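pinging the channel bc i need a second pair of eyes. not urgent but kinda urgent?? the chain im working w is below, pasted from the shared doc
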Amino acid sequence: MISPLYHCHPFLVILLSVLWILATVQAQGNVSVGNFLSANDESIPWQSPSGDFAFGFHPIQGKEDQFLLAIWYAKIPDRTIVWYANRQNPAERGSKVELTSTGLVLKDPKGRVLWRSKSPKDDTQASNAAMLDTGNFVIASRNSGNIWESFKYPTDTILPTQELDADSSLSSALTDRSYQEGKYQLRFNNGFFILNQIDMFTGKPYNNYFNLGNGSRLIFNQSGYIQIQSSNGSLLNLAPENAPPDPESNYYRAILSFDGVFTFYSYPRNPSGGESWSAWWIRPKDICSSFVDSTARLGNGPCGYNTICESLNNGRPNCSCPPGFSFLDESNPYNGCKQDYTSYLEDCNVDGSTSEEDLFEFKSMQFVDFPFSDFGILQPATEFECKQSCLRDCSCAVAILQDSTVSEDGSGTCWKKKLPLSNGHVNRETIDRTSLFKVLKSDAPKTKKNPATPNPNDENQDQVIWILGVLLGTSAVFNFVSFAAISLIFFCLYKRRPRDFNGIPSGSDLETNLRSFTYKDLEQATNRFKEELGRGAFGTVCKGELPSSFGNCVAVKKLDKFVQEGEREFKTEVKVIGQTHHKNLVRLIGYCDEGEHRLLVYEFMQNGSLSSFLFGVLRPSWQQRLHIALGIAKGLAYLHEECSIQIIHCDIKPQNILLDDSFTAKISDFGLAKLLINNTKTLTGIRGTKGYVAPEWFRNTPLTVKVDVYSFGVMLLEIITCRRCVEIEMEDAAILTDWAYECHSEGIAEKLVENDEEARSDPAKLEMLLKVAIWCVQDEPLLRPSMRTVSMMLEGAVQVPTPPCPFLAIPL
């Protein structure tokens, strides 16, 4: 309810507020001119009287030795930042902020000014400063006035007792882990408070994508309401909507997030443990649709160009790439996607058609639309006609087909779209269209080849071929004789080649530093394969001993499923594996490719498999399990993104994760799936192990690295719970993924680790790991994060949003 005093004397209320602030500063001025803070881990910030807020240097997560000059909630475990000064210029360790007679000055260790508070227009000098309990840092003058306050220069957050007028605005951060200025604003424009996106190159604003309301002032009052004040002084409550705020029991803040969502949050002042900021009010509720339904038709939308945006239940946009596209930056899914093939678009016929249509096929997604990128419309059109038109059009990247059931003849409307695709979004309730994405067939080359085109008008073609045949035939005889002579020489040299210990050849592959062993060498090293370490899908592993130069103990794997052909392909793939070097991969020492024998020689892992470690009698420590999970994630990220040739493991499970003497996790068998697929003609069944197999194995779709992401998600749940992924003992749910999501959705994550006190005492980390695992086991591969993103989530460098139900994927 609005106070009658405010209606009658609005300026009197403002005046009283100013006087109250001035009195507070004079009474609580705890920073004198000349006081300073240094940017280091031991620096004690300037706190408000109650200790609710602190002003000082806050370390930037993930960036060692860099700090923000900031204000944050000091009593909340995650130290939520509500204001920062140097968003564009992080301070190095050793930087200093000092209160001078003209205000605050931030300098780096070399004395260069990084930031300073805005000085007064006159010659008024500062006398002291104070961090107030409202979250406002105020600098007072010697004549009892204020020369500067943080509330007048907000960043992305507004607090109770703070106001925004026509001259102030909020600017989002660039990403969830970068405080640099982002691409969203909350500002006053032509009598309205609006949300809009800006062009990152020029800084110019696009049209608004949401209108908060008509007014001249946005007020976050002391009672906890966000209001808009009109020109006649009347107030309109915006937030919260359902329950009245209780500032005595809760902290409040409203923030324009990096993804463009403006949210009102609360946090209990007296937490019992495990709490987090709760969203009471969100605008817009569906940001993906807001960019379509509003006037904000320019700009690249919440997710960037060539993406699909889906608004989650918490209002946040979930960004994915369409089939045939991949993220420009795997670590930032909001930055747009790029087409996986480009060379086919370079050579188009003069009429805009292409002759390469036999290399393409279509992947369909329902409830997806790109409303602003069409360049051609077919009406009426059947699905076949729509596909054929897009297939033959060089410019067409996707065709949108309206539901054909609305017409009697089965035809509908077909929109052809060209790049860049903008404002793509998914909505199962309002979109009655199907997107048909033109993608390369799985067996098509990723880049276009340009073979020389034969000239049919060449009358001498047959004569040239005859002459070449004679020359080549003569040359072949000469080459055969030369080859025989050279082979004889090399055979003699090989027989005289020096040998190392135990008859092992001294030669090695110069490209990979791999040893080429004979079968006799390995038979002797393993005592005729006597000590078996284990059996797997690919063969038997035995322990062996080699000279000290190889590290003494080794693990020798005999591959059982190779057909006796393709020797060149086997060596090529072994070289690819041999060129991998990462601390979380088991190192390949050498190989044997002799007759019917194909063996691989690996470093020996002292502590066996993760399976034995997790499911043994003694439960591993919580911190040990977290370290192992992160190591596996980094190893997979290396295989997927950093190798010269991308490697998909296809059988991630605890049995294939080995532990060295310091319990560092190392992925084994990471090249065998690729080797077997390339060399085995009879491989037609599903690879992988029951419980870890991604759903797309059962579909007629090409496999990607996301099959490994799914398996990792299942294994991460096993690492969290120390339970196998299929266990009858898990109450009513025999599948770990089902039970884990049920516990997460009901808010009882601790039930997963009910006998693990160490894990139960770390609820924030438990919740984060659980959310990461659920993201990884999404049925729809597009929704699963990359392993690089997973690694960053586990390290805390990327915020983990609330995952959707993994079993309700968008149908392909």
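so The mean pLDDT is 80. and The chain has 15 helices and 44 strands. — does that match what u expected or am i reading it wrong
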